[in-house]
Write a structure and sequence with these properties.
Distance between the termini: 96 Å
Strand content: 25-35%
CATH class of the largest domain: Alpha Beta
Strand order of the largest sheet: 1-3-2-8-7
Number of domains: 2
Number of strands: 9
Shape: globular
Number of helices: 3
Order of helices and strands: HEEEEEEHEEEH
């Protein structure tokens, strides 16, 4: 094995000192950079947790739900004139197309909606209205429908029955889909009424 000359030893020493100097300069900057990245990741994680755990902003007025006493076919001319009724009083109102009159019990509950939209169900090809409720409203609605199996209920906006489904099973979950023999225009109008009675 060959021994290094004085000149080669000197070059190796300079190279080692250069590396040590570069590490001394980079190390604090690298440590600061790693600390900043870690801090930003922690802030992002906290921000994401805060965002997802926050209650949804409600921009839709609560939707009245009333048990149906009876319903019968009518014509638009025979529909009673819309009039405001206290939630604790029974009422008689027409549906959206003015083809049925509903006798309704006092309001059973109000559900808070976070989103309403009309769409074509890709599985059935039917026009559908989809309503998303808050977690609390979904729980209350589930408890309510458990006692209404076999009965009809009405979603009422203003003085109009927007939809009057028959409850066949207790309804659990935050998303409700209303479907039937609807055109795209009818589904859109129902969704609009569920969002805003005007």
């Amino acid at each position: 094995m060959r021994r290094l000359t004085k000149r080669e030893t000197h070059k190796v020493g300079l190279a080692v000192l250069s590396v040590v100097g570069v590490v001394a300069i980079i190390s604090p900057n690298l440590t600061g950079l790693v600390a900043n990245v870690t801090r930003h990741r922690e802030e992002a994680a906290v921000s994401a947790i805060a965002t997802t755990s926050a209650a949804p902003v409600l921009t839709i007025k609560p939707l009245s739900v009333r048990p149906v006493i009876s319903a019968f076919v009518t014509t638009p001319e025979q529909c009673p004139a819309p009039a405001p009724v206290a939630p604790d009083q029974p009422t008689r109102v027409c549906d959206l197309p003015k083809t049925a009159v509903y006798e309704l019990s006092p309001e059973a509950l109000r559900v808070d909606l976070t989103h309403v939209d009309s769409l074509r169900n890709p599985l059935t090809g039917l026009e559908t209205v989809q309503m998303t409720m808050t977690t609390d409203s979904a729980r209350q609605f589930g408890d309510f429908t458990a006692g209404q199996v076999g009965k009809q209920v009405a979603f009422v906006r203003g003085a109009t029955v927007v939809w009057g489904p028959k409850i066949t099973v207790p309804i659990d979950g935050q998303v409700l889909q209303l479907s039937g023999d609807l055109t795209a225009e009818q589904a859109s109008e129902i969704a609009r009424m569920l969002r805003d009675e005007s």
